[in-house]
Design brief:
37% of the residues lie in helices and 17% in strands. The chain is of the alpha/beta class. A seven-stranded parallel sheet has the order 3-2-1-4-5-6-10, with helices on both faces. A three-stranded mixed sheet has the order 7-9-11. The longest helix is centred in the first third of the chain and has 22 residues.
């Protein structure tokens, strides 16, 4: 099998490449990225390309499968640019796959594509939702708007190309040791002292009502991609590990004391920091996280044969360890030095203002 992986240098891509490297049924892998590794190792053929600008038809010719992971989280202050890359770029990649005769497409969707959970307003008890839960997203955040729009667009694309097997993976928050510094750059920004984000260093943690989420390790997502490529399954699959993470679980990992803080106060602080370009994560993303449903992963277990090897707390612990002792990865996106000395490059590029 010849597999083309877009976004191969990021968090998800690193896990997918590791999983494919262990699979004897995969003969060759093509990694597509805007910034390929400067010193690529064996086993991956690299193609420098931007999914929003470059035609990938030639890169996809002769491939049996496409794994589309490419995604631009920043600039959060320029949603037109992220729409052009994430939505229009994805549609272009899928058109190229059909033109090139690719028979299998694995698309990285997200829990963010789902409509708000049943108890988002506190009126009903929370319960896990399956893949049939509506995927209309939360309109207040670019990330969730884009993921939801692509679900609708792929409905039409799939109907036009019934002979192409389309698999949609919807992972929860994906963590690991290697991408920890990259995720700090993307969501927390350059002013967070990552050496303090470790157990015993943070004395108190805000206890935000209703804040809870699911996580999964990046290597477990890579395994789900491997299983999707080798099998004959199609359709959507939720990916998450147990248990569901809430503020109590976070406080336990950080050995911190919980202090009740209203949602409005946290949002106001985040909004002020975002508008002042102190953090890249927008207040709309905070709103979206509070509304995410808990996903039922039974279909992934029963149809794909997928079971996460690491718990949600193990994935979070790996992330915290990656912040405390950053090693990063072999690609520019995962490099702990990507922000420049004293993170000057991160600050100069505009926090949340540039890709």
């Amino acid at each position: 099998m010849r597999v083309v992986v877009t976004g191969a240098t990021g968090n998800l891509g690193a896990g997918v490449l590791r999983a494919l490297a262990r699979e004897p049924g995969v003969g060759s892998v093509v990694g597509v990225a805007r910034r390929p590794p400067p010193d690529p190792g064996p086993g991956v053929e690299w193609v420098r390309a931007d999914v929003a600008r470059d035609d990938l038809t030639d890169a996809l010719r002769g491939a049996d499968a496409l794994v589309h992971l490419a995604w631009l989280f920043q600039p959060t202050h320029d949603p037109v640019l992220t729409w052009r890359v994430n939505v229009l770029g994805t549609l272009a990649v899928h058109r190229a796959a059909a033109e090139a005769g690719v028979s299998t497409v694995v698309h990285a969707s997200s829990v963010g594509a789902y409509s708000p959970r049943p108890d988002a307003d506190g009126s009903t008890a929370d319960h896990p939702v399956g893949e049939d839960w509506p995927t209309h997203g939360w309109p207040g955040a670019a990330y969730t708007r884009e993921k939801a729009y692509l679900e609708r667009a792929l409905d039409g694309w799939e109907a036009e190309h019934p002979t192409i097997r389309l698999v949609r993976l919807r992972p929860s928050f994906v963590f690991g040791r290697e991408p920890a510094v990259e995720q700090r750059r993307l969501f927390a920004g350059p002013f967070v002292p990552q050496s303090l984000v470790r157990p015993g260093r943070i004395p108190v943690l805000p206890d935000v009502p209703g804040l809870r989420f699911q996580t999964v390790h990046s290597d477990d997502v890579g395994e789900a991609v491997r299983l999707a490529l080798l099998g004959d399954a199609r359709g959507p699959f939720n990916l998450a590990a147990d248990p569901v993470v809430d503020t109590k679980a976070l406080a336990g990992l950080l050995r911190a004391r919980l202090v009740p803080v209203p949602r409005a106060a946290v949002r106001a602080g985040l909004a002020a920091a975002w508008y002042l370009r102190l953090v890249p994560a927008s207040p709309g993303l905070f709103d979206a996280v509070l509304r995410l449903p808990v996903m039922d992963t039974a279909r992934a277990r029963d149809v794909l044969g997928w079971t996460p090897r690491r718990s949600s707390t193990e994935a979070l612990s790996a992330f915290l360890d990656g912040l405390a002792r950053p090693t990063g990865g072999p690609t520019p996106r995962l490099s702990p030095d990507a922000g420049g000395p004293a993170r000057a490059g991160e600050i100069a590029s505009g926090v949340g203002g540039r890709p």
